Amino acid sequence: MKRKPKKHEALLWSIALPGFGQFLNGKIVKGIVLILLEFIVNIQSNFNLTIMLSFMGEINKAIETPNYQWLMFYPCLYMFSIWDAYRDAEGDTSALAYLPFVFGAFFITIGLIYSTKLTLFGIKLGPVFLPMTFLIPGLLIGYIIKSIATTFINEE
Known about the structure:
Layout: H1 7-16, H2 20-24, H3 28-45, H4 47-55, H5 59-64, H6 68-71, H7 74-88, H8 99-113, E1 119-120, E2 123-124, H9 126-155
Antiparallel strand pairs: 1-2
Helix pairs in contact: 1-7, 3-7, 7-8, 8-9
């Protein structure tokens, strides 16, 4: 008997690489499509080099490296993959479960847009670390809106 993957296991595999959580859930075609999309966006945007430069502390080079028009696809692809794997593994299946992931993707995208100019506490974080920091308020706002909307739906 095949065991059903735990929701957090699927979530973590999708964080590792979009599509892996879908493989774990037995959604092979969806997993292949997400992995292909991840590779296309990653290569076209020069994201791996951008990540490497960011971790080496060469933020100005990391800002100049990516193709931002391609990189803008990454947050939605990434967050969709995580949400989809989590949901398919019987995580939160409520009608509004997607809201934290949508707001997370939105805030990451905003962080990416402003990553060339915005500094945090006087430190330029660039196109990797600034969007990552924007994820936290995005998820929090998404969870708050989900909670409020769920309360209103349940009251009716």
